[in-house]
Specification:
Layout lengths: L7 E4 L9 E10 L2 E10 L5 H15 L7 H6 L8 H16 L9 H6 L14 H8 L7 E4 L2 E4 L8 H18 L5 E5 L2 E5 L8 E6 L11 E7 L2 E7 L4 E4 L2 E4 L14 E8 L2 H14 L1 H10 L5 E7 L5 E5 L1 H4 L5
Antiparallel strand pairs: 1-8, 2-3, 3-6, 4-5, 6-7, 7-10, 8-9, 10-13, 11-12, 13-14, 14-15
């Protein structure tokens, strides 16, 4: 449902050892994107092997791009027992789906395929409303069953965890580092972030979020810069992954209520909360919902979310909606 549509640039100071805690930097490829991780460890102990092993395990569970994964097997109609990682993603996805009245839906896979957003699929030239309505019969979290500790899909239903899996990956890497006694780190997978403690200079980790623009202006790149401590952050936007057909712009965020790409004035949504999986999923849901519904949902959620929304008003001007707690974090 979502690939990398934006980039968060990590604004981090250089390494300076303190009490023999040395800054270690790990980076690599995963889930069709990249990860960058910085942490202070005793004597500079490096955990990249463990991190890469964990990311491989995640791929084997919830990556639709791996034919051997659990989710691919389920989508192919196989009966297979799910693992702990799959179940974690699955129940978080259901939770966000229920809390957003179905605007986050992990069964949108057939719609994403129809609109051509998988692996450079052919984009739709002529929209077939009848075909979309037929696909919609297999969309909805009510078409997933939980039986004997396993997921059972109604025939024709296919899952897609792309809008939550990267956030979950961040959380799981965070858990790994916590278990290793790492107290200070910044984790980024495909633009989704989680920070704990401080950087090598003893300051709170500082991150910048790009402006929601098709082109990157390196001189004035950031929409905002903020301090992030003991929280997770995710951003979703429609400004880089889209195509134009017959003069109509089709963005990658699918509205599961209509079966069509979301049509609203939102450009990007940034969410901060405790779990990166939830920040990831809610950011996607809010992009589909639009500003008015998003503001209503946030007020009624039990989960505490901080949001920064960039949108276009009726006059075509850029506007922002920023929650009060988010404003306190912003430094520029």
């Amino acid at each position: 449902m979502k690939n990398i549509l934006y980039f968060l640039v990590l604004v981090v100071c250089a390494c300076s050892p303190s009490d023999n805690h040395i800054l270690v930097i790990n980076s690599g490829e995963t889930q069709g994107t990249y990860y960058h991780i910085k942490y202070l460890s005793q004597g500079g102990k490096n955990f990249q092997i463990q991190i890469d092993s964990l990311l491989t395990e995640i791929d084997s569970s919830v990556s639709i791009y791996k034919p051997y994964s659990i989710i691919s097997s389920l989508n192919n109609g196989e009966e297979i027992k799910t693992d702990e990682i799959f179940n974690l993603v699955y129940f978080d996805a259901l939770n966000v789906g229920k809390n957003t009245n179905g605007y986050f839906d992990c069964t949108v896979s057939p719609l994403v395929k129809y609109w051509g957003f998988y692996n450079n699929d052919n984009n739709v030239i002529e929209v077939d409303s009848v075909a979309i309505q037929k696909i919609m019969k297999n969309v909805g979290i009510d078409k997933i069953n939980w039986k004997d500790s396993a997921v059972v899909l109604t025939e024709g239903v296919k899952l897609d965890f792309n809008a939550i899996a990267q956030g979950t990956s961040v959380d799981l890497i965070s858990n790994l580092l916590d278990q290793q006694g790492i107290l200070n780190y910044l984790i980024e997978v495909g633009g989704e972030l989680k920070a704990k403690g401080i950087n090598a200079d003893g300051d709170v980790w500082r991150v910048g979020v790009d402006k929601p623009s098709d082109d990157i202006d390196f001189k004035e790149r950031f929409q905002f810069i903020l301090d992030l401590k003991n929280k997770a952050l995710a951003t979703s936007g429609n400004y880089r992954k889209f195509y134009i057909s017959n003069g109509v712009k089709y963005a990658h965020t699918i509205n599961p209520k209509t079966g069509y790409p979301a049509q609203n004035r939102l450009l990007s949504v940034t969410v901060i909360t405790n779990k990166c999986s939830l920040a990831d999923a809610y950011a996607t849901a809010f992009m589909a919902m639009g500003l008015k519904k998003t503001k209503q949902i946030i007020k009624n959620l039990d989960v505490k979310l901080e949001v920064y929304i960039v949108y276009i008003d009726k006059n075509g001007d850029w506007k922002t909606y920023i929650s009060s707690t988010m404003k306190k974090r912003i430094v520029n």
